[in-house]
Amino acid sequence: MPAHRPAFCRQCGNPLPDPVQVGRVREYCGPTCRSASRRDRARTTAHESPEVKDSLTKAARKAKLDIVRNEGLGEAGDPAERGRAAALSLLERPPGGTLSALEAIAFARGAAGAVEEGMRVVVQRAREAGHTWEEVGQVLGTTRQAAFQRFGRPADPRTGQPMALSMLPGAAERGAALLADLAALRWAEARRDFGERIAGKLDVDGLATIWARLAGMFGQFEGMGEPVAFQAGDHTVVDVPLSFEAGERTGRVSYDRGGKVTGLFFLPPGLT
Question: Which of 15, 27, 56, 132 is at a distance of 20 to 30 A from 33, taking alpha carbons?
Answer without folding.
Answer: 132
